[in-house]
Fold:
Amino acid sequence: MKIVFHEKYFNSDYASDPAAAPGRLDGIVRIVGSKSDRYEIIRPEPATEEDILRAHGRLHHQQIKSDPLLYELASLAAGGAILAAEEAYGGNPAFAVIRPPGHHASADSCWGFCFFNNVSISLLRLHAEGKIRSAFVLDFDLHTGDGNINILERRSDGFRVSIVNPLSHDRWDYLAEVEDYMRHLENIDIFAASAGFDQGINDWGNLLYPADYADLGRLMREYSGKLCQGRRYALLEGGYNHDAIGVNADSFCEGFR
Structure:
């Protein structure tokens, strides 16, 4: 399994929000980096302007570009998403340990610690290359990914995307909701996850245990295997307990890989 990471993601100076906090990525990188027998770390390049403009308007792009450091990091996060998507399409499951996150970024606006929509940019790259015509997005962040919905649902270019943001408040019902949705999917070319770990039992959502994240990864693996030759990737979104996020991300990867 591939882990997408760039040392520039450690830079916390691009913003002052919880997603940009110093130390937030350390636990994830330390744990997955110690498992070289399971994970190969690969380094992305920034997304191009063409890549970004498939998902965003020019005015939004220019607004982010007016802050050079923010643009550098946001473009690199989008590039990490693209690399994960390309690896997944080629048959290598991938998890991108990127920041800033992206699922609250819409075509012409953003909020919630997000700037460019990483999931949308990566999927639209594959679609533009003629590799996919449909996708499924599991967004298990605590907060609904309104940017994913706004950009990817009800498109006019023939690209069909199914998105689920689980709403259940019981951990068992939550997993059952995800599996029930996956069970009814048809004609999907790739699976993607907006992987937010702020639903964790020791995080803001106070709901999911590490074993639950492993089950979410397992469901992604099993149903992508049934529907699209195992093509699957995941992108880091939320997760703010620095002591818990590494354990939860590692558990997800154990099920996902």
Notes: The chain has nine helices and seven strands. The longest helix spans residues 68-89. The mean pLDDT is 98.
